[in-house]
Amino acid sequence: MSISIKNGLGYRDGVAFPFVKSPNHGGALKPRFIVIHDTASGLKDDGDISWLTNPAAKVSAHVVVSRQGKITQLVPFNVVAWHAGQSQWKGLKFMNSYAVGIEIDNPGKLQKVSEGVYKNDICTIDTNKDPSLKVEYAKTTAHGAGYWLHYSPEQIAAVTDLCFALAQTFKIEDIITHWMISPGRKIDTNPLYPLDQLKASALPYHPVGLLSAPEGGERHDTDEAGEEQVDLEPHSDVRDESATAPGKLKAFIKSKLTAASGLFGGLSITSFLGVLQDWKVIVALGTFILIGLALWIWLEKE
């Protein structure tokens, strides 16, 4: 199966995705991220599509992916859809303005009623009647404890192919979930979704991860990753440069250069070449190196 993107519309094997236009959208979009969601609904996509195209709902997504792997598009990929709500990621707020939204047909958290039967306020899943449905217990800090329906192989394949096409078309930086950008407010996708597998298959290189979310869903953003804390104990006859203003600045520059070298040193050749395909990264890296060298030379003269 081959998916391509042309003028904001998706095509599978040269045939346009089924398109049901949603009135719930904003202006132009240049996506940097992909956010994947659960529909928190039954196992048929028609109800999801009806709701996401209802003006009264004031919500939408770019596509809905059914259990059978069918992709229905509701909003062009170069137009803002209303899927993220109150959200933030890497210092950006309201991710609708930065991300494509993919809704995957899945009921969300379930409770066990009896052996093989699970339900929530929306639907009932009976694995006795349909053995192809797999439900598993899982507990995480972000999701809490519960029973969760596995995504179908067709869904995983369709989402992977779509994300790959989007990453190639729009130079997508990362693929994230709703719970990652709205921790404490949202719990989709469910904890069974193979997010790492999706990233490895769909992205041209793995995100460095300085601003990634841990399992608990709480972000701990920092620009000090990889920096080691070193205590200097100079001899009495040695001038402690770290105590002076130039010395502190020199130590700071050295620590940043060390952190940067550790960061890029941990990348594989393929990942490093993938990073360098982005001219913004090249310009930023070159500027950082030139400024660092200039300050270093000035401090040596001092």
TrEMBL record:
It catalyses: Hydrolyzes the link between N-acetylmuramoyl residues and L-amino acid residues in certain cell-wall glycopeptides. Residues 214-243 are annotated as: Disordered. This is N-acetylmuramoyl-L-alanine amidase. SMART domains: Ami_2. InterPro entries: Amidase/PGRP_sf, Amidase_domain, NAMLAA_amidase_2. Residues 22-192 form the N-acetylmuramoyl-L-alanine amidase domain. GO terms for molecular function: N-acetylmuramoyl-L-alanine amidase activity. Pfam families: Amidase_2. Its EC number is 3.5.1.28.
